[in-house]
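In this supplementary section we document a worked example of the pipeline. Step one takes a protein sequence of length 280 as its only input; no multiple sequence alignment statistics are reported here. Step two produces a three-dimensional model, which step three serialises into structure tokens for compact storage. The input and output of this example are shown verbatim.
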Amino acid sequence: MATTPSNVAQSAGSIDHQIGYLGPGGSWTHQACLDLFDAKNLVPLERSQLFASYMSGSIDGACVPVTTSVVGATPYLDFVLDLPDVLIVSEYTKMLGYSLLALPGTALRDIKQVLAHPVALEEVKPWLDKELPAAKRVEAISGGAAALSVAESGEHDRAAMGPAIGAELYGLVSLVDDIEEGPHNVTRWWVLGRAMPAPSGDDKTSLLASVADRDFSSLLASLANENIKILDIYERPSKKTLDTHRYLIDVIGHAAEGAIGRFLSSHPEVRLLGSYPRRY
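The serialised model returned by step three reads:
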């Protein structure tokens, strides 16, 4: 199923007030939120504030980038999995094409530094290697922070990699657009909310299993015995021992129906993170 802003926002349901995202503005997560929600409802927050505000209930929901086609799990996935109480109510995917943003009057030949989020630097590496091989690559906490830093520097020897919205917000210009755009460069966001959507007929469920390595094969066998189809698995550290891990397992179906419900009732060690309409 193709991802569109309208059907994702619809699945988010009750989220119609304050939506937190990783600030400052001008990042791809900001752009994803603008695709999905009314701009007046968006609240830019630093990472720890975002998750604390979601847990305290001071915001109605949060939008977090969790996986990409280039680097796999983002640095934010583990922060979501660390939350003691979380509910995924929708997912959103977007094909990215980066813009190189600089102060007005800057030429491509002037650029000596490129600022971007670490994930973005991996995603645009082929272009940088070819077009700006001598430029220093500087990590920023987000694409928005990179654009803001360039704007505040007053220097013409640096540029930010991020969505074009950063130019609009911070008085920059785009030197090059659509960098590394394509199906190879896609990010998936989770929208965290409060109420699980009802079954739609084409759903995905995200499970979190914390198990010893020796027990993982039997866990997979139990899923197979229930004829639950696995879409993907992400292995994450348990932060306890070398021989235990956390596994994010995305499966087809809704927890309120049939096989997944039976599986969860017989496997209390597996945590339900959410069931929501499948978008890819």
